Every structure is written in structure tokens, then in C-alpha cells.
Automatic annotation (TrEMBL), chains A, B:
Species the sequence originates in: Acholeplasma brassicae
Protein name: Transcriptional regulator, LacI family
Keyword Transcription assigned: yes
CDD domains: HTH_LacI (cd01392), PBP1_LacI_sugar_binding-like (cd06267)
Gene Ontology molecular function terms on file: DNA-binding transcription factor activity; transcription cis-regulatory region binding
Amino acid sequence: MVKLKDIAEALGVSVGTVSKGLRHSHEISEEVTDRIIRKANELGYIANSSARNLKTNRSYVIGVVYVDKSRAGLGHDYFSTMLSSIRDELSLHGYDFTFVSNTIGENKLSYVNHARYRRCDGVIIVTADFKEPEIIELVESEIPVVTIDHVFNNRSAILSDNDEGLEQIINYVYKKGHRKIAFIHGEDTAVTEQRIASFYKACETLQIEVPKDYIKEALYHFPKQAGLRTRELLQLKERPTCIIYPDDYAFMGGLTEIEKHGLKIPEDISVVGYDGIFLSRILRPILCSYVQNSTEIGKQAVNRLLEQIDKPKSFIRKPVRVKGVLQEGQTVKDIH
Amino acid sequence: MVKLKDIAEALGVSVGTVSKGLRHSHEISEEVTDRIIRKANELGYIANSSARNLKTNRSYVIGVVYVDKSRAGLGHDYFSTMLSSIRDELSLHGYDFTFVSNTIGENKLSYVNHARYRRCDGVIIVTADFKEPEIIELVESEIPVVTIDHVFNNRSAILSDNDEGLEQIINYVYKKGHRKIAFIHGEDTAVTEQRIASFYKACETLQIEVPKDYIKEALYHFPKQAGLRTRELLQLKERPTCIIYPDDYAFMGGLTEIEKHGLKIPEDISVVGYDGIFLSRILRPILCSYVQNSTEIGKQAVNRLLEQIDKPKSFIRKPVRVKGVLQEGQTVKDIH
DNA sequence: TTGTAGGCGTTATCAC
DNA sequence: GTGATAACGCCTACAA
């Protein structure tokens, strides 16, 4: 690999001059700068990031924590879109990204220490168990951190607007005449809590009565469980006219069950998903779903993080909400 | 950040000793090693990978090229599963991974140079335009490279068994009595070529006649186009009894079109997908599809690459085929 | 068994 | 405007 020294020797100048010239320092004359750059290209010079990091104490690497709880690997639309967006936005700013895990080879290495080892300038926590001590350790460390869909006290976070999501859904199905609305929510997380609270609040405002057995729990992204819950709902004496699912994938389990009962969507029963994944728009009927703006969330996460890295002093840490949009689709019938 | 020197001073030994002690060198007495490790933990020592890389000329970072041609970001099941698998397998061996793009900030930087800048020990090309000069440059560089689903002369590659995939599909639908088999294949790539060749070969062997207008092209992962091609097929005087799609997502477009024509699957027409994505198993009827073993492909890619890095001399570069498996599903009717 | 010292490639601070 | 030179933190011969 050709290095600064090679260019310096070829040109009969010093290494320091080459270093400055390559970075267009105004200390160096235009003519010399020009010769340096030309020679660098000629020799195919590429800087050594390790040496540079060592000296400058900046790696231009951002760590990403992505712990897959939802049994979907990177294949969960909401998160994979976000990751793409994070990657692209980082790249735009000259940063690379690397996954931060809590193992390295045989050895256990906490998230913080992994990030420290790679000298990450900052970390984005996309998914993780936010109650895990190691995650908390990372958040409270000296490394700038942005979390997604979870707020730590006095830290930056980007939030998909879960309150508004459910509110919009309820308002929409209400407008379509539904009063018997069942809600299958996901497993217990901060996000789920918000959605449930928001569900009840919206119902209260609209004076919708919610029987206890209209509220069910099923794992996110797990069609089978949602299917079982759907069956329970369909067997109720007072059947709901509309079912809200934890997410679009989970809905697929409900779909099967609904068809088993010989019911048609939306003629016999209305359904609503969450996420607005690619699939939801491909399906017929198009699924009514709240589309989270995961691209924007990723972008915001990057920009907030870089801001924090660049001006650690003046940076104000606060949660940012990113709104989604209701995709009305064709699965909610007007039953007026 | 605490460094070797800090430990050395705290213990009254030399930096060299600490360095060796931490790596359990047999040069160092057990007692001193013990004290060193204890002190290191006490002080929370974490090595600086940049300094280490600089010295050892090994980064333990693998670059991944993932250029999204299929308009799906990381959201394409086949690839996202593979990426998860690559990440996990690398982590198992003490490697991290970073995406290698051909831009960095404002500036254009070729893939090779990006990988060189980060001193990647090797690169896995997951998706890319393999005809692009920059990709070829990367493959022909000094950096160990493994490609997926594309073979460069005398380089390592991992291949999903596209030949066998189509052969198995054809044999299966033949067994079910189908003779009028239409094939909507993807856009022109090496993979597509293989599949087409394999399709014709299997048909020939079974003496199935393939009318020209039974063969159509539609972009991968693009339901709308597959839908249009499906319509054309359904309007033929001599309608096929079975349609093979480029992939499971593309099939979704076909599904809509088939339903528009008032046809039912599989009663009125049989269909086959490709990939065996999560969704294909959730759908009812379960989609007949060839399930590519993307987890295994990712794993193989990592292991082949690491082998090549560790023993560059003795390593034999050759393509590795990874078999998939036919998911029979419920969308191919027995029409005997 | 432990210590010393040079150097990996870069940047930055001084002199000149 | 340019050139020495000293770090950055680590590893590794080689010396003690």
C-alpha cells in the first residue's frame, strides 16, 4: 500500500507537506498541492484509516445495535428500511457503520466495550431490550447514543408516533361507523404501552365502550398467535366489527382464521394492521394500516447523532417524534 | 480511555509485559499475568483496535457490498436473511462487518478503495451489478473476495443452486400432471440465465413442449409487472395450467390478476414462486416455492472468505453450491 | 521472565 | 510555504 512517505519521496518534499497538501491546507502553495494530488492519484494512494483514527481520535464509524427480538433477522420491513436509511444517510456524511454486538469471537464483550474497541464515534440503538443492564450501561456511557422508539432520561431518541398512530386508526374506523373495536396488541414493551394507552384514550374521547375481552395480546410479527386471538374474538357472542392487529405480519395469521370461519374482508369483518409494509400494499384488498415513516426515522437518528458528536456541548437532548400516515386501504367497511 | 501504559504504571511493570500478559503469552509468569488481567479489568481497559490494526496490519473487519438493485433496500428476505447470517457467523469468528459503498461523503470512492481505506481483511459481495467495472476492479484486487450468486473466473463464490431449483420445480409440477407450464422469469442476470437454461433443459428431458408465448420476463420483486405478464398468459387461447414466477413477491402481482379473472388457486390454475420467503408460508394456500437456503449461503460465504484470508497460499478458489429445498405448499393442483 | 525501543501511517506543532 | 519531529497506542524483536 502506498503511503504518504512514498509520495513525499517521489516528489522530494516532506511527509508533513504531503499530508497537508492532500487535505488542501492553505499552508501549502497551490502548485505543490497540485503536484501532490496528481502524484497521489498516480500512485493510487489511499489513506489508512487506522493510522488516522489513532492520531485524530475520530473513527468516522457509527455503531448500530440491532438485537433481533422479533425473530425476523433483518427481514422485518420496519427495521430493515430504517437500517437502509441509516446506512445511506451516514454514507452521505462520510461515515461508515458497523454492527455492535455483545460478543466477539469466543469472548463476551459488552456493547459499550465493543463500541469502544472499534472507537465508534457514536451508536444508534435500533432494536434491543432496553431494560437490559448492558444496554443501559451503553446509554449512560461517554459515547453519544441515539435510541429509536425508546426514551432514556435526558438522552436523544427518535420515536415513531405511536400515540398518533392508534388515534388515527380509531378515528378512522369510528368515522366508518365501527363501535365494536377489538385490539390485539403486541407483547409488553414501551411501544406497546403507548399504543394501548392511546387506544383507550381515543375510545374514551369518542365514547366507545371497550369490553375486556376485546383486548388481546399476541407477539409482534407472529401470525400464528394473532390467528389464535382472532379465533377467540370470532367466537365471542358479541363479535367485534373491526379488529386491529399488532402489525401487518401478525394480521396474516388473522386473515387465515377469518377465512376459515367463512368470513370475507371487509364485507363481514373489518381489519387494520400496523407498519404499512410493502406487502400490505400488494395484498388485495389493500390493508388498512398505519405506515410508519421508517426512512425518516433513520435519517433523523443519524442527523441527531452527528449533531451530538459535532457539538457535544450545545446539543440539546430530547426526543424527536416522526409522524406516520394512515393508509386507508380497503379493509375497513363503511357500516353506517 | 485507559491504555496499556496506565496498567503498566499502576503495576510497576513495562508496557510490553502488559501487552503480552493480556494475551496470555507464555513468556509471562502466571502470577504477573494474573495481576495484569485483574488490573486491566479493574481499570476497564479496552484495546484500541486502530492502534492494533496499524501495527498488525489486520483489522478483523470484513466489508460487505450490498447494492440494492431490486428496489427493496435490506427488505428483501433472501438477502436480509443472508446478511443476518453473515453478521452472526463473522461475529462468531471475532470479525465485525461494515458496508462498503462507492461513495464516502461528498466524494466518489471506488469499492476497492473504500475497502482499502478501512483496511478490510476481506470483502463479501452480496448483491451488485457484476458487470460494473468497479466491481470487477474489486474482485481483481489484492483483497480476498467472495461473491454470492455469481462466479468470477478463478475466484470464490457461493451459489444458490438455481439449476436444481428450477429442475425440482418442473419435475414436481410434471408429476402433478402439468404439461402447459408458463415461466415468468426475472430480468437478465447470470442467475436468470441459469434458471432459464435449467427450465428448458428440464422440459426437454420430460418432453414438455414450451410455446414461445409461455415465456415472459418481469422484474424480480416487482408484483405489478408480474401481474401484467400474468394477464397476458391468461388471455392466451391455450392457457397454461401452471405459472412459475420470478420470486414470491412477484407472484403477489400474479395473484391479484388471477383473482380479477375470477380464477381460484389452485383449482383453476396452479402457481409456483421462488425464494420461500416468510410470507409464502403464511399465505393460504401456502405457496409452492423453492426455498433457498440463504442462512447457509451466508455462513459458507464467511467461512470460505476467512479460510482464504488465513491461508492465502493453499486456498483453492472454487464455487460452492448450496442446495435449497422445494416447499410443495398447496398451490399446485394434481390434474391427473 | 521481564524490559527496551523501534516503528506501523498519520497528524500537528514547531522551527526555519 | 515547507520541513523536522513528536506523538497516537500497540506489538514485537531483541536485549538484559
